[in-house]
Amino acid sequence: MADPASAALLAPALGRRMACWLYEGILLFAVAFFAGYLFSTLSQTRNALDNRHALQAFLFVVFGLYFTWFWTKGQTLAMKTWHIRVVDRAGRPLTQGRALLRYVLSWLWFLPPLAAIAPFHLSGGETAVLMLGWVAVWALLSRLHPQQQFWHDALAGTRLVHWQPAPR
């Protein structure tokens, strides 16, 4: 018979985690829009190509703050919608340091294809295929993890778990 404590730490189904991931991307569009507006206003940027690298760095920091803040609370809005919570290996809430480490390691979803795109000057369609292909591979690699967790979670010492809010 399975231990009830370990059963509570089981990973949600991959489809649910990926639906949450997609919804998170939609919500991040709004975060990026407002952060970009703030950056362009404060830096007096008139052309989208001006200060492009500074804007990218700014968005990296803003996204880091966003995720670190919400993950230390247990979940983002997308995670709340899909009844998913992020905890450490023992099932405790994340510290700010662990949430920040998870954020940095979560870039494994994007860095390998971005590194492959740079030297080859791929078209938009080729870039999309490479990016989506890598995301699919990275997601499916979670099937090889003993607890079905994403590998950046395993490296960060975190895990995604099913979370059901208490009835009112």
Give a structural overview:
The protein has 168 residues and is mainly alpha-helical. The chain has one domain (11-162). 62% of the residues lie in helices and 6% in strands. The chain has helices at residues 4-7, 14-43, 52-73, 77-81, 96-106, 111-120, 124-140, 151-156, and strands at 84-88, 158-162. It has a two-stranded antiparallel ribbon with strand order 1-2. The longest helix is centred in the first third of the chain and has 30 residues, at 14-43.
Structural features:
single chain; 168 residues; mainly alpha; two-stranded antiparallel sheet; globular
Number of strands: 2
Give the overall silhouette.
globular
Low-confidence stretches: none
Q: Give average pLDDT, whole number.
A: 90
Share of helix, binned: 55-70%
Give the amount of beta strand, in percent.
5-15%
Strand order of the largest sheet: 1-2
Can you count the helices? 8
Radius of gyration, CA atoms, in whole angstroms:
18 Å
**Secondary-structure element order, N to C:** HHHHEHHHHE
| Total number of domains | 1
Distance between the ends:
31 Å
Tell me the structural class.
Answer: mainly alpha
Largest sheet: 2 strands, antiparallel
